TrEMBL record, chain A:
Lineage: Archaea, Methanobacteriati, Methanobacteriota, Stenosarchaea group, Methanomicrobia
Protein name according to UniProt: BadF/BadG/BcrA/BcrD ATPase
UniProt organism field: Candidatus Methanoperedens nitratireducens
Key words of the record: Iron, Iron-sulfur, Metal-binding
Entries under Pfam families matching the protein: BcrAD_BadFG
Coiled-coil ranges (or none): none
Gene3D superfamilies (UniProt xref): 3.30.420.40
């Protein structure tokens, strides 16, 4: 039995073999490569395309996130899942959730725009951030307009590293508005691998944020745990 | 949309003898019929429309504004509910008035003063040409009793939420024809409905024409529709009687009044959770946090913008909400 999370950007497969979590990640367009030789009856699906792929049972990303995070942090009370095209905030204690998907400014796509602009890899963003000496204020709440503001800051003399840090703060501020008071706040999703964004969020919230070892596969694991 | 299509068929026979008066929100249909006019709720055409309005905040008001200004809906006059409900309507209603359609602005009292509402109803009666058929409010009262039975049967799992909603939402204008509407109500088919995951739908009605059916398919049983319930709840036989009853129209009153009413109604219906529908750029969006802090139920807030089918993002929320209720 596997958990398969096919989201807007990537597909994730998780299985548990002898108590050990095994996983594979591919681009969404290559999701079929992950299930070569696997019967649909052995798949518990989640993610945006959960119903379009073969599955024995499907579960929404919200429920999958709760089960997946529980594996790493059993007493987490708020989960923030930053996906490619939406951000979900789940209040586990109050059994409540909100999703931002109307605006790119609080989604992984926003930071992808920034990386594309500088022609760098997303995973390099964190090290650029760490080299920034100043943080320019990017005040715009709209993703597209924030990009024009970013260019204005470059023209004004800020370095690429500083502007990237400024964009991380703009992104983190946007996310922070959605997050309720929490004792244990856990972040998941591919975007969380970006250490620059993470440190900006911790700075804004003035609190430590917990991240599982492999934050991108938590929902696939959660789908599996939900069913099994 | 079936009701609206049927309605359109009857209009062709009726508009020869009766004036057709568009309404933008709840205006006592008792008085409009009594003044020998035929009410037409402009909102009823919106969920099925394919309009992309040029200049909009809320798509509900923007679409009717554009359709009326361009004469895409055939009416003789317009009543805009400008006080106590939709504030965007006050501006969009004036745009329609400027396009040349005789328009009257109707204000509900925020404090529920029946004398104020009575004075508003007399002004409305003057605009409509005064009462000529005083028997109509009594006939409408009888129809509303049937509407209340439909609502109860829905809450008891004997009528689908979609069928009940389509009847109840049509009580704002009673399809412009009391006899025809009575036939439509009578034709509602009873069937056994699974009432697992009982939810209340509060706020303005969703702009998606298939919302109730989608919610049902995803395992949520809508057992209360806040605004349509207001449409069947109020009546009155004459202007003072209508004023005394409609002054408690909850959407026009302060939030604490509306919340107290909701608390009682949701308790009666034994709901497991609440779906709060909000419309993009509508002031009701601001009420969400107040509703959340005062109504002690799991609550899902969704937001719609343009009309059409229920979007996939909303379906995801509904499905996750059902999973959440099943975990509770």
């Amino acid at each position: 039995m596997i958990g398969l999370d096919v989201g807007s950007t990537t597909a994730k497969k998780v299985s548990i073999e002898d108590g050990e979590i095994k996983y594979q990640i591919a681009g969404t367009h290559n999701w079929k490569d992950l299930i070569t030789g696997i019967d649909g009856n052995d798949i518990i699906s989640t993610g945006y395309f959960r119903k379009s792929i073969p599955h024995r049972a499907s579960v929404t990303e919200i429920t999958a996130a709760i089960y997946g995070v529980r594996h790493y942090f059993p007493d987490a009370d708020v989960i923030v899942d930053i996906g490619g095209q939406d951000t979900k905030v789940i209040d586990v204690k109050k059994n409540n959730f909100i999703i931002n998907d109307k605006c790119s400014a609080g989604t992984g796509a926003f930071l992808e725009f920034v990386a594309n602009y500088f022609k760098i890899e997303l995973k390099e963003m964190g090290s650029f951030h760490s080299r920034a000496k100043r943080i320019p204020a990017i005040n715009n709440t709209c993703g597209v307009f924030a990009l024009s503001e970013m260019i204005s800051q470059l023209v004004a003399g800020y370095t690429q590293e500083e502007v990237i840090a400024g964009m991380h703060y703009a992104f983190a501020r946007r996310i922070s508005f959605m997050i309720p008071e929490a004792q244990k706040l856990v972040l998941i999703g591919g975007t969380v691998k970006n250490k620059g964004m993470l440190s900006a969020l911790e700075d804004i919230l003035q609190k430590e944020v917990l991240v599982p070892d492999e934050p991108q596969i938590v929902n696939a694991l959660g789908a599996l745990k939900y069913y099994c | 949309m079936k009701l609206i299509q049927k309605y359109k068929l009857t209009v062709n026979n009726w508009c020869i003898v009766q004036k057709k008066t568009a309404i933008t929100a709840l205006v006592p249909p008792e008085l409009i019929f009594a003044c020998n006019s035929e009410p037409f709720d402009v909102n009823n055409v919106i969920p099925g429309s394919k309009k992309y309005p040029r200049n909009k905040l809320c798509a509900w008001t923007a679409i009717w504004q554009e359709m009326l200004s361009k004469r895409e809906i055939d009416i003789d006059s317009l009543i805009v509910v400008a006080g106590g409900d939709c504030h965007n309507a006050l501006v969009d209603g004036q745009k329609v008035a400027m396009s040349g359609i005789p328009t009257h602005f109707f204000f509900y009292p925020f404090d529920g003063d029946p004398d104020y509402l009575e004075s508003q109803l007399y002004k409305l009666s003057d605009f409509l040409g005064n009462v000529g058929s005083p028997e109509k409010p009594g006939q409408i009262r009888e129809l509303k009793k049937l509407g209340q039975k439909i609502d109860k049967k829905r809450a008891d799992g004997k009528i689908s939420a979609g069928d009940a909603f389509r009847i109840m939402i049509s009580f704002s204008d009673l399809m412009g024809n009391l006899d025809k509407f009575k036939e439509v109500i009578s034709s509602t088919k009873e069937r056994k409905i699974d009432l697992k995951n009982r939810v209340a739908l509060i706020g303005v009605p969703p702009i998606f024409h298939d919302f109730h059916d989608v919610a049902r398919a995803l395992g949520l049983a809508v057992v209360f529709d806040e605004l349509p319930f207001e449409f069947i709840r109020h009546s009155g036989n004459d202007i003072p009687g209508i004023a005394r009853d409609y002054c408690n129209y909850t959407f026009a009153r302060p939030l604490d009044f509306r919340i107290k009413f909701l608390q009682e109604e949701l308790e009666k219906r034994k709901v497991d959770g609440i779906i709060h529908y909000t419309q993009f750029a509508c002031h009701h969006m601001l009420e969400d946090e107040i509703m959340r802090s005062n109504l002690d139920y799991p609550m899902l807030t969704i937001q719609g913008d343009l009309p059409g089918n229920t979007p996939e993002q909303i379906k995801l929320r509904l499905e996750a909400f059902r999973e959440l209720l099943e975990r509770s």
